[in-house]
User: Which sequence fits this backbone?
């Protein structure tokens, strides 16, 4: 075990964990931030997407020892009042079915919009293609991102 | 309006004192519940709640809590079922709080998510619950005013008398809770619906988009251990021996617990449990046949040529017709086994103590599962509780309680609260798969007509691989359907739209080919067959011809069927399943000579649509799911061992491949039917037929992308 001082959602959090533990499990099992989901463990599905210094990363494949001073943002820290343009758009389009992948979808989309506030349809497809939605809400996800882009 | 006899008795209406339930309900309502409309609840917290019946309670501030009894797997029942109660109760939806009920066999019937039946089977019960409660509130108001109840009207949680005086439901709730249950109540005329048929957002939306704990995997309990299980690596293998020294040395691992042919690793984190699982050194031995996909293929193809002693259906004499036909078309279609791949892997919480058994998590069949756990642990069912979490997908996988039994067995051995999790690899390799299946179709053509039809189906562990009474049954004088089963030790079960998820593609591809052979337009050919079923059906007729024809015509119209567009190729398909009629038109283009599906036009008759925005979502999802698995779904076994273990080697459809999908619901006042599954079966056939239109190549196997004739 080893001590790590992590910057998560604007707070300092100290954890004493196995250095090779992926940040996903640090968030979920140790910090009880349960919004970030496990889907595949090999960075193939996107359910575990969080931001590292604002960039979308797959937390299931990122050991805690590799984080250093980087700032982690999870779905719980995306906005103070659940009022991120994407969250508003998700409500408007009633995007989820089962809902399990949606935090990862939103985090991935938030990173896209931060870098490309006016993405084309193709930009959205390229950016979101790593996120699986088993219920196949892809069309609504795309529409919600387009709505959010107009309101950013 | 429909006057209807209530089936309730006093026992099903809980009269609970305000003092004893008030605090409890408040605690729930304001801490962990969900409101349909964010920010809408700005009233003072209620101080008293009155339980009107098992489905709902009304607070003294007008807040209404409606229990959602059925498991939520993404099919929207947690929103749409309470909508039905709220409609008949006549309350403002913004004042409704929805709470997920746990397993409660005394209060609820059929707490199952399966077969697309939640709304259909509960429709009357939900309406009656709302209507009965409303009548009791009205009766209470009539006592207060000393007037006849029939002189009172209701709207949005308020009762109005002939003088225009008003009482809120909240004001009469306590009195209503003491009244006799009415013998008769009136149900609304569907044309007066104010909530049903309007778009209502998902009641769990806020929790989903802010990452609140909601799913089984999010369960947390004091002292809980995480459990990951090592299972035999192949079907037909069992445990011989194991060494656990290395596993026990993994930091965070607290225990190693063998049970049956499996070994559980318990740890203080999921990661440690996963590492412990990998560190186990187990030796396995052969305990049965180690099956290959090649073996399945060979054996099933041989079975297709076998005559069945008991046909599933036999009208006329098809065999004789084939001998005198001008031409016989025979085609065979083949499907692989498929895993469900719910994005939330199988998991369950269990805490077995000497006093009771607490189970919590994602399960589509809580009642059946409780019975099995009771048998496994030798406990009385009354000692076992099952709470229902939201489920990260089901698709049939969570009908099977294997993971609940594992969790209960492990917790029973260690007498600690445990949270069992399947890794993705566990989930994909310890599946209860869509069985591999094959179908052979034969049509006799004579004088420009299809005169006989013969279908033989075979599937792994399938009692019946066919749907013998589905269309085109009743349209032909000579019709024969047979079914065989290949016994396999690979566990198989229901997968979204069981049987028809592949059979529909095969049938609709075959019909397309027959129509072409007869020189007929595929849509006109289908409609011609329906005419016979309408005028003079042959044998048993189990579908509604008018509804079926209507969706076919609607899909044709909305898709511009028959209108040629350069570079766009169309395919047609229609199928009836789960009591719902669906017709689909696929459009595709060729990109670098490879087909790309661009648009799906879908017509659906599922009766009354309870929540259109969610119904559309569900329908689109089914279509894209159907396309995805037809294009990509590939799964095979070598020596009993699944060859794909994770998403690097198992391809699911992604955003880039998802076409535009336009849904057209038939306007209907008939009772609602299924919607979670019926749009999936026709999708593959529509795509296959469009691929033929584009390339001149017919596809006889799934996944399509593995067929070099088109995708090579």
Assistant:
């Amino acid at each position: 075990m080893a001590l790590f001082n992590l910057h998560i959602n604007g707070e300092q959090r100290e954890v004493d964990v196995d250095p090779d533990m992926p940040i996903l499990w640090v968030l979920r099992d140790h910090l009880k931030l349960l919004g970030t989901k496990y889907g595949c463990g090999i960075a193939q599905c996107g359910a575990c997407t969080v931001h590292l210094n604002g960039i979308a990363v797959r937390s299931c494949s990122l050991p805690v020892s590799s984080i250093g001073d980087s700032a982690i943002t999870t779905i719980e820290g995306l906005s103070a009042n659940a009022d991120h343009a994407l969250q508003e758009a998700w409500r408007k389009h009633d995007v989820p079915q089962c809902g399990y992948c949606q935090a990862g979808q939103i985090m991935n989309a938030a990173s896209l919009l931060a870098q490309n506030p006016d993405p084309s349809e193709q930009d959205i497809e390229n950016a979101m293609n790593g996120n699986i939605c088993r219920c196949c809400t892809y069309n609504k996800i795309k529409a919600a991102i387009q709505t959010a882009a107009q309101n950013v | 309006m429909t006057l209807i006899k209530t089936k309730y008795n006093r026992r099903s209406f809980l009269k609970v004192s305000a003092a004893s339930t008030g605090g409890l309900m408040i605690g729930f309502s304001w801490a962990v519940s969900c409101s349909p409309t964010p920010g809408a609840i700005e009233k003072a917290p209620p101080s008293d709640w009155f339980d009107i019946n098992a489905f709902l309670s009304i607070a003294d501030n007008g807040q209404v809590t409606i229990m959602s009894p059925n498991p939520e797997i993404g099919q929207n029942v947690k929103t749409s079922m309470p909508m039905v109660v709220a409609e008949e109760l006549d309350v403002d939806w913004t004042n409704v709080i929805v709470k997920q009920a746990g397993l409660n066999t005394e209060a609820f019937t059929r707490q199952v998510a399966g077969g697309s039946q939640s709304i259909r089977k509960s429709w009357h019960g939900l309406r009656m619950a709302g209507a009965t409660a409303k009548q009791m509130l009205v009766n209470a108001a009539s006592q207060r005013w000393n007037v006849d109840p029939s002189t009172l009207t209701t709207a949005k949680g308020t009762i109005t008398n002939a003088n225009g005086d008003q009482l809120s439901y909240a004001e009469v709730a306590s009195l209503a809770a003491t009244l006799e249950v009415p013998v008769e109540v009136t149900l609304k005329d569907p044309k007066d619906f104010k909530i049903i048929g309007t778009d209502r957002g998902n009641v769990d939306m806020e929790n989903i988009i802010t990452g609140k704990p909601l799913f089984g995997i999010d369960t947390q309990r004091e002292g809980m251990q995480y459990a990951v299980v090592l299972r035999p690596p192949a079907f037909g293998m069992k445990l011989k021996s194991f060494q656990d020294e290395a596993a026990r040395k993994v930091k965070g691992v607290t225990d190693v617990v063998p049970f049956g042919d499996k070994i559980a690793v318990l740890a203080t984190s999921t990661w440690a449990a996963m590492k412990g699982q990998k560190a186990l050194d187990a030796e396995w031995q052969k305990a049965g046949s180690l099956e290959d996909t090649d073996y399945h293929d060979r054996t099933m193809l041989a079975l297709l040529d076998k005559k069945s002693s008991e046909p599933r259906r036999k009208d006329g004499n098809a065999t004789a017709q084939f001998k005198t036909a001008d031409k016989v078309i025979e085609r065979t279609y083949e499907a692989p086994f498929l895993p469900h791949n719910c994005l939330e892997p199988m998991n369950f919480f269990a805490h077995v103590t000497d006093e009771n058994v607490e189970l919590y998590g994602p399960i589509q069949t809580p009642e059946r599962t409780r019975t099995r756990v009771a048998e496994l642990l030798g406990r009385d069912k009354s000692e076992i509780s099952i709470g229902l979490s939201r489920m990260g997908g089901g698709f049939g996988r969570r009908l099977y309680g294997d993971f609940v039994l594992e969790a209960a067995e492990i917790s029973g051995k260690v007498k600690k609260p445990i949270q069992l999790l399947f890794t993705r690899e566990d989930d994909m390799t310890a599946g209860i798969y869509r069985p591999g299946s094959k179908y052979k179709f034969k049509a006799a053509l004579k004088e420009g007509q299809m005169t006989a039809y013969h279908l033989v189906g075979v599937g792994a562990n399938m009692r019946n691989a066919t749907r013998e009474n589905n269309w085109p049954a009743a349209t032909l004088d000579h019709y024969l359907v047979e079914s065989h089963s290949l016994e396999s030790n690979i566990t198989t079960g229901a997968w979204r739209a069981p049987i028809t998820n592949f059979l529909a593609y095969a049938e609709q591809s075959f019909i397309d080919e027959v129509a072409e052979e007869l020189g007929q337009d595929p849509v006109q050919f289908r409609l011609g067959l329906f005419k016979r079923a309408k005028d003079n059906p042959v044998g048993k007729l189990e579908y509604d011809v008018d509804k079926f024809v209507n969706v076919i015509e609607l899909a044709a119209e909305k898709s511009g069927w028959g209108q040629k567009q350069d570079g766009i190729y169309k395919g047609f398909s229609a199928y009836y399943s789960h009591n719902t009629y669906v017709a689909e038109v696929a459009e595709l283009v060729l990109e670098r000579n490879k087909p790309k599906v661009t648009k799906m036009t879908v017509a659906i008759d599922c009766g009354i649509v309870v929540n259109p925005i969610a119904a559309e979502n569900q329908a689109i999802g089914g279509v894209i799911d159907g396309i995805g698995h037809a294009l990509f779904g590939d799964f095979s076994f070598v020596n009993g061992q699944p060859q794909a273990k994770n998403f690097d080697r198992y391809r699911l459809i992604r955003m880039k491949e998802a076409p535009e999908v336009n849904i057209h619901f038939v306007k209907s006042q008939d009772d609602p039917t299924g919607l979670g599954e019926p749009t999936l079966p026709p999708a593959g056939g529509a795509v296959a037929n469009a691929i033929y239109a584009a390339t001149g190549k017919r596809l006889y196997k799934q996944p399509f992308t593995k067929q070099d004739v088109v995708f090579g």
Notes: Chain B touches chain A through 68 residues (CB under 8 Å). The CA atoms of residues 382 and 555 of chain B lie 51 Å apart.
